[in-house]
Amino acid sequence: MNILLLLIPLSLLILAGAVWVFFWAVNQGQFDDLETPGLLPLDDSDKKRTPPE
Amino acid sequence: MPSSPNCWHCGEALRQDVVIHARVAGATRPMCCQGCRAAAEWIEQLGLSDYYALRTSAAQRPDAEADPATHDYWRQDNARHVIRDLGDGLRESLLLVEGVRCTACVWLIERSLGALPGVVSVQVNAVAQRARVTWRDSQVTLPQLLQALARTGYHALPLDARGLDDLRRRESRDALKRLMVAGFGAMQAMMYATAIYLGAEAALDASTRDLLRWLGLLVATPVVFYSAQPFFAGAWRSIRTRRIGMDVPVALAIAAVYAASVIEALRGSGEVYFDSISMFVFFLLVGRYLEMRARHRARDLTDALARLTPPFAERKCADGTLQRVGIHELRVGDCVRVAEGGIVPADGVLLSERCRVDEALLSGESAPVTKRRGALLIAGSVLEDGPVLVQIERTGADTTLAGIAALVGRAAAARPRLQVAGEAAAGRFVVRVLVLTAITAVAWAVVDPARAFAAAIAVLVISCPCAFALAVPAALTRALGALARRGVLVVKPDAIQALAECTHALFDKTGTLTEVTLSADVQTFGGMSRDDALCMAATVARESRHPVARAIAAAHPGMQGASVSGITTQAGLGVSATIDGRALRLGRADFALGERHTREYDGAVLLADDSGPIAAFRVSERLRADACAAIDALRAQGVAVLVASGDAPSKVASIAARLNVAWRARLLPADKLAWVAELRAEGARVLAVGDGVNDAPVLAGADVAIALAEGSELTQASSDIVLKGARLDSIASARDIAQRTLAIVRQNQRWALYYNFSTVPLAALGFIPPWLAALGMSLSSIGVILNALRIGRDPASRPAGPASPARVPAEAFPRPAA
C-alpha cells in the first residue's frame, strides 16, 4: 500500500496541471467559439496566397 | 455544376440575354452579373478558390448598393465608438457580417481580410455572424476593410466597441472553468470514494482509509467553494428577495452534506460523501452550462442594438435632396425620411400627416399605433406604412434607445415557457425530496440511529433533480443547434413548441411561395413610351417594399431629382404619390382606378392618375424551386396548407392548383388576420409564413410565425423564426425536429420521474448505499443527455446544399393546363 503515498500525490499533481492547462486555454479564448474551427483542417495551408495588389 | 443554369458564385438563375463568364480554378464559369464576376475573380486572385469546394450554400450576391461612399462613412471621427484602441497603433473592431451562411464563408472572410496588409488578426464566429478584426492603423483603415468584405459579397456593420469585452464572454468562460473544476473534482473524489467502498470489503487499514477521506476533502473543497458558488449566490439572492428559488434547496443540500462530511472526516468515523457532493455539483453545472449556451445563441440572433437601430438614416438637406448619413451624425433638429418597413433612427416628431408604427419592441403591444402630425416617434420602432418625415428631437444616448436595448436584452434572456415549467417541476420536486429526507432521517433515528444519516443522504442523492433540471435545456440546446445548421434561426425559443403543435400552415403567395419578375411587355395608354411609363412607375415603386414594387423598381432607376410628395402606402393595395405635381397611383386595378376599374386589368399592376390609366404592367411569378417539395412535406406531416394572397383570384388559383392547396385571394392584411382568427377559433394552431410588410399583422396574429430573411425588418420583428436563404423546404424538417424535441423532453421528464419513483422508496428503506445512489443519479443524468443528442440525428432531415440536386427549376413540376 505504500505505493499509494507516491501515486496519490502524483495524481494530484497531474490533476493540478490539467486544471492549470485548462484555465490557460479558456483564458486564451480557445473555447470562445466551438463551431467555427471545425473547418480549419480542410484548409490547404501550404497553398501560396497572393495578396491583392 | 458547370452546365447548371445558375450563377457559379451566388446560385441565382442566369439571364438568357447577358452572358458573363469568369475563370475560377482554371475553368470558365457562368456568372449572373458583373458583381458576381468581380467577387469570383477577386476570390480567385487571392488564391481562395477552394471556397467553392468548401461552401455548403451559395454566396450572397454582391450588392450594387455597397458603394464606397457608404464605407467612407466610417472615417476616424465617425467610427470612434466602434473602434477600440489597443495601443501601439493597433485597432480592434467587432463587425456584424451579414450573409455568413456556412463555415466556408468564415474561411473566406478570414483569408480575404487576413490577406490585406496591416491586418493582424481576424476571428469569425459563424453562428453569431460576428468578426473580430485587429489591424495596424498606419497600414489599413476601417473603410478599406469594409470595402474588402463588400467585394467578396458580405455586408459588414461595425458594432459598438463595448461589445468587445462583453460580459457574456466572461460569463461563458467562468461557467466553463467552474464546470471543469467540478468535473475533475468529481472524478477524483469518486476514485478515492470507490477505494474506500471497496476497501470496506477488503479490510482497508484505518490510516489508509483516513488518508483517502482527507484526499476526498481536498478535491471536493474547490468544487464546493469555487464551482458551486453560483448556487450559493443564487440562493442568497432569492432568500434576500424572500422567494424560494431552485437554488435554495440545492445550496442547502450542498452545504449540509459538505459540512456533515467534513465533521465526519475530522472525527475519523462515520461516512463521508465528498464524491456524491462533487457529482451533484458537476451535473447541475452541466445543465446550467447547456442552458447558458442556448441563451447566448438566442441573443446573438436578436442582438439588441444591431437589429434595432439602422446604421444609416436619410437626412433631408436644405435643398430638399436626401443624403445618406450615419445615425451618429444626426443632430437635434435634423429632418430624416423613414421608408415603409424601415426603422426610426432616433426619437423625433412626426412631420407628415399620419402614419402607423409598430412599437412592439418598446411597449410589447403588437398592434401598430397610429401617429398624427406632431406625435413623438421613438427610435427603434418600425414604420408600417410610409414613408414619413421625422424631425429629430433626441439622438444617441439621450434616446429611449438605452431602454429599448434593455427591453430586448430582457426578452432575449427570457426563458422559454417549456424550461420555466421544467424548472418549476424540479423545484417542487426538490422541496418534496427534502421533506422526504427529513422524514427518513427521523424515522431511522427512531429505528436505528446508526443508519439514519446514510439513509437520509441516499434519499437526497439518489433523487437528485439533475435529470429533471437537464431534461429541458439539454433537448432545447440540441434542437436550436440542429435548426440553426439547417438555416432556421429560432428567435423566440417558445416557437419550437408552437411549431411542433401547429395544424395549419398559412402561406403568403407573392414573394414567399413565388419570386416576382417584371415581364417585358408593358401596355401604355395615351401614347406614352414604355420607358417613360416604367420610369414613372419605378419612381413610385421605390417607396414600397412589396415584392412587386421591388421588381418594378429594379427594372428602372426612376426619375432623378423629381419632387416626390404625399407618399402613402396601403398594405396589400398599392402606393400613391405626387410626382412633380401629378397624383399617381400604382397597384391593384381597383386601387389605381378607384370605382372606374374593370375586370380587364385583373392581375396587372396599374399606374394611373386622376384622369385614367397610364400603363399596365404584367408581372410574372415563378414558383420557388422548393415550394412544391416543401408543401408536400408539410402535408405529409398532416399539416393543412393554405395560401392567402392579396392577388387576383385567377393567379392565386393557378399557383394553388399547382401546389394542390386551398386558397383565398384578394385578401387585405386585415382579411388574412381574420382568416387566422377564424382558423384559431375552430381550434387550429396556425403557422404563418410570409415575407412582406403586409404580412406583419398575420405573422403577429398566428401561433407561430416564420419570416424569410430577405423580407423587411418589420416582418422579421414580428416573427418567431427567421428562415435564412429562403429555403422553404426547411420548414417541414424544422417542424419534424420541433416535434422530436417535444417528444424527447417528455420522454426525459417521464424517465426522470420513473427513476425517482422506483429508487427513492428503496433508498428511504436503507437498501441503497450512498455510493450506489451517486452512481444511479449520474447515470440518470447521462441518460437524459444522451437521449437529447438524438435530436437532429435523423438522416432524412440532413441539410441539403446547393451542390445536391435540391435546386430543381420550377418548370420541372407538372403544370396543369391553364
Describe this structure in words.
Chain A is elongated and about 50 Å long. The longest helix of chain A has 25 residues, at 3-27. Chain A has 53 residues and is mainly alpha-helical. Chain A has one helix spanning 3-27. Chain B has 818 residues and is α+β, with helices and mostly antiparallel strands. Chain B folds into seven domains: 1-60, no CATH class; 68-165, Alpha-Beta Plaits, CATH 3.30.70; 169-301; 306-411, Calcium-transporting ATPase, cytoplasmic transduction domain A (Distorted Sandwich); 415-486 and 740-795, no CATH class; 487-512 and 624-726, HAD superfamily/HAD-like (Rossmann fold, 3-Layer(aba) Sandwich), CATH 3.40.50.1000; 514-623, Calcium-transporting ATPase, cytoplasmic domain N. Chain B is built from 27 helices and 29 strands. In chain B, strands 17-29-28-27-18-25-26 form a seven-stranded mixed beta sheet, with helices on both faces. In chain B, helix 8 (229-240) packs across helix 9 (247-267), helix 16 packs parallel to helix 27 and helix 17 (494-501) crosses helix 26. Chain B is elongated. The chains are: A mainly alpha (53), B alpha+beta (818).
Summarize the structure.
Chain A is mostly helical. Chain A has one helix spanning 3-27. Chain A has one helix and no strands.
